[in-house]
Structure formats: structure tokens, C-alpha cells
Amino acid sequence: MRIAVIGGGPGGLYFAALVKQVDPRHEVVLWERGGAEDAFGFGVVFSDGALGGVQAANPELFEAVIDRFVRWESVDVRYRGRTKSHDGYRFSAVGRQALLRLLRECCEDRRVVLRFATSAPPLPELRAEFDLVVAAEGVGSAVRSARAEAFGAHLEPRGSRYLWMGTDRVFDALTFAVVETPHGPVQVHAYPYAPGRSTFIVETTDRVLRDSGLEVPDRSPAETARAVAGLFDGDPDLLGDHRLICTGSRWGRFTSVRNDRWSDGNVVLLGDAAHTAHFSIGSGTKLAMEDAVALAISLTEHRDLPDALAAYEAERKPAVERMQRVAEISREWFERVEEHVGLPLDEFTVRLLTRSGRISHRDLPLLDRAHVERVRNWFSRTLASTA
């Protein structure tokens, strides 16, 4: 089979590597308009067990990823200059660039054709030349936009405005911080991901962003970092003497993406092109990589392409929708955080961690041991039969 993959993020790269792993006869070409080292996002976080099935599909690759993990077992809530720690959580994080580098190397070892800094050919051309086109180019997917009616695409821009940054302050845990500014509350989602580095996502509303004068289109990354750091003058211990790092990212708006159908003829959606989940539950990369596993398995188990794509959607869509429901509750709570500001620290912390009693850490992705074993056994059998 000739397979075109559009998008060089974790989902696209992992699918390309896996589908060549299970059948080296496939011809796989991947296009990514950004350069090989242009990754943004600093670090990606995974809750305990979130990589179970993904790791089972390629244990050698993930041994290398795990060697780069930063781990912690608590969630910190920082509010009005005080921090409340809660144990019983287990998380890991890794630098996004490190993860992508390992995935690229895996693709190269399996002779996937990688075309970085290159836009994919027009969709009609790809559909004619390849048996399958995998659109894994993120929330702004051009493929999905071009065929929005066919996919039944639903894009809903939400109230969250966010800026993805880094810092040289190393946090000890997944940290939710809420800081009251003269313009309204601003929240931070921060976690360590590498020695001397943490991800630092700043989230707020349109009103706070407008009144603070922070959204300046032609401001340099360094100027943006200094301006955003000024938001936290009311809590000087949050950053201390440490600096924020901005690599050219701009204030984004979280967009909820859903599709009634994940395939259109020989075109299929994967990862954020098919679905999004708010970053407060840390599952976007996990979901994309699980899509990659499921699509690779479906293509191998079903000789007929329509059957394979239908099986992929039937396997993934219900699981994704469950996570989206949890993520929407979490997103809504953070967008309305102003309603909770003013509560005592203990009550505020409980409301944040349970999102007002509607979710808890039990709703975050946990290790499904039966699923992990099924994936591991499937790949073992398949690789043995093709050896």
C-alpha cells in the first residue's frame, strides 16, 4: 500500500513508524511544512498509564523515551501566595523535541520517506497517487477544512486564550497557579519536563488579555516573555528570579474539534485534526498516538480499506469522546475561575482538583492492563508472522 501522511507531529510520525513496522512493504511518505527541529510546546505530560497501549506497540522506542522522562507524584495548587500539595497522582513528562527526534529516528530506521520543510501536494493529487492519505496536521488541518462537509466537521472556538511558554524554574509537580491581576485572574499550568526546564502555559480570558494590553502582534518573543512575566508581580514567588521563555508562539484560542466522520474515501483524520481535548487534562499527545496504534492495527487486520477505516473509527471514537467530555468540564471550570476566586485555599483547591465535584483524578487516563496486553500480543504475533 502507498500511504501519504500529512503532519510531522507525534501522531503522524508514530503512525508512519508503526505501519512500516507491521508491514515493511508499505511505501510511506510523510510531509511536514515545518523544519525537523521546529517543534514548539516545550514539554508534553502523561498521566500514569497513559502510554500503556502506545508503549506496548513499540517497547524499544519507549524505553528510550522513558529514559528521558521527568516524573512526579503530586499536584500542587498555588493560590494567593500559598501552595497546597496533594499526593496520589503519578505523572511523567518529556521534552516535545526529544520525543519527536526519537520518532523521526524510528521512521528513518524503517525507511519512511520524510519530507520536512515541505508542504504536502494538493489533496486531489495525493488522493489519486496514494492508496491512503492520513491527515495528521493538527487543529488547523487544511485537509479537514477542505472537506469539512464530508467529515461533518464541528469547530467551536472557546473562551480560553492561552500562550505556551517555558521557564528555567523547575517545578516539583504538576502545578495549577491562579494569580489575581488588576485586570482579572490569570491561571498557569506548569510542570517539569527536562533538567532545568518546565512547561509554563498561561491561560486567561479575552477581557483580561484586552485590558492588560498583552496581545501585541508585532512584539518579539523576548518582549512577550517579559510582558507576561509582569502578570505575576502579585505572586513574586511563583517565578522568583527565573525567566519565561517564548519561542515565537502567539496567544491562541482553544478550539473544540469534533467530526461526525473520521474518513472520506481514502482520506482519514488522526489526532487533533479529528479531535481536541483541553490541555488542562494533558491528553492531546496520548490520544494522537493511540489513534496511530489503532489505525496501524486496523489497516493490517482488514484487507478492504473502507472496512479498515470503519474499524479504526469504531475503536477510537468512543474512547476519544469520553475524554472530550472530561476535558470540556475541565475547560469550562478554568474559563470561569473568577467565580471561585475569593474562596479559602482549602476550598478553592478542592474545587479545582474535582472541578466543582464533577471530575477527579480517577477520570484521567489510567492504565488499562487488558488493553495493553491485547496490543502487545497483537504486535508480537504480527511481527512474528512477517519476520
TrEMBL record:
One Pfam family here: FAD_binding_3
Q: Where is the FAD-binding domain?
A: 131-325
Keyword hit for Transferase: no
Q: Which Gene3D superfamilies match?
A: 3.30.9.20, FAD/NAD(P)-binding domain (3.50.50.60)
What keywords tag this UniProt record? NAD, Oxidoreductase
Top-rank taxon, per record: Bacteria
Question: What protein is this chain from?
Answer: FAD-binding domain-containing protein
